[in-house]
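Hey, quick one: can you model this chain's 3D structure?
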Amino acid sequence: MRQYKILGGQRLSGEIAIGGAKNAVLPIIAAACLNQSEVYIHNCPRISDVLDSVEILECIGCSVEFLGNTLKISSSAGLKYDVPDECATKMRSSILFLGALLSREKRANLALPGGCSIGERAIDLHLHGLELMGAKITRTEEKLFCETEGLRGAKINLAFASVGATENLMIAAVKARGETIIENAAREPEIVDLARFLKTLGANIRGAGTKTIVIKGVDRLNSHASHETMPDRIVAGTYLLAAAMTGGEITLANVRPFDLAPFASYLTEMGCKLYPDDNCVSLAAPKRLLAVPRITTKVHPGFPTDMQAQFVAALSIADGQSEVTETIFEERYKHVQELRKMGADIRLTADKKTFITKGVERLHGATVTAHDLRCGAALVLAGLAAEGETLVKDAQYVERGYASLESDLRSLGTEICLVGAGGEAVFGGGALVGGASPLFSDCSLVGMSPRSLDSFRV
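Sure thing. Here's the predicted structure for all 458 residues.
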């Protein structure tokens, strides 16, 4: 297993460009199966979740090729409807192939999805919506067997504004007979990006970015499609916090400042100065961060659960006491026990939903373990701010969502490298030796003018 080796105490400074969003590109890759021709997905991040999605595509009969940062997908031939178990169980987003294969091949068999262990993340909303659209689904303890005589439009009221369920139903509805209405739909920017991609395929969609999405099924899709993936707002937020926790200054290029609004206000409350422009944002950190009284994760446009662990890490060194409550995933608390190993003063409530943090002046280096993607990112941030050396084990979780994390952070003046099992790494110049295994190579915003939400809806 790989691990990050970090020598903390360095102040981040510099500029970096943000790549394509993990949470946007994965449903887009699954949706590419709808088109019996070629699809070009630009600004595609080379993260392990993308490579696992590519493996699924190839196993079901697609031809896939990376052209720099562009993913070319051809699905002109008939596709297999049986997704290999070893592929489906690697990640949560494998469930998104269900809607695409039911639409394309009228059958889909796949193992229950895997991914990070952060809670049950039930797929009942996905299955119920597809059943309303005419799918017959048999579920065992380990697998789903699905078929349909042809998907049809339906009115679906989601009990919870699930991102994954909204995406799956949007994909399934593109070629369904009649009109599909999704009520209480998720409103994340990644939903809007998926809608934009589906429209390049020829889909008839309106309302993405609002609580009601309407899709009128079409008979044919365009012969070719090309799409530029939106920048990753969670990666952007992680890097902003890296600068904030080290008292640094950073400029992020290729970002959409409005997407950062759900957590930008907390950064300013912590004493940071944010300076956004059309497609970039700069941050200047104070000498010491200030505590935020309370943060609660919510569905968009609320505070994103994917930033919770990173903010807890930042608040662990902020001046004062903070309370952070997780309402989305019931097991997204495992970073707390690891941060405690580094000297953080964090108390969990009995229900393990609220983290009460009293900021300490300095964390100390330790050997810690990434239990999931965002937990790992939080521990890397803590290591950057800590005194001494930190080892973050199980780096493969972080690789699921961050492309070249250690290279990006080294370019900003930090001392971090990725070490393979039994190998050594050299700090400073970015050189890796021995068993080192690099990753893939390749709103209270200060000064921000108000913008209409309508410009971010489809």
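One thing worth noting: The longest strand covers residues 143-148.
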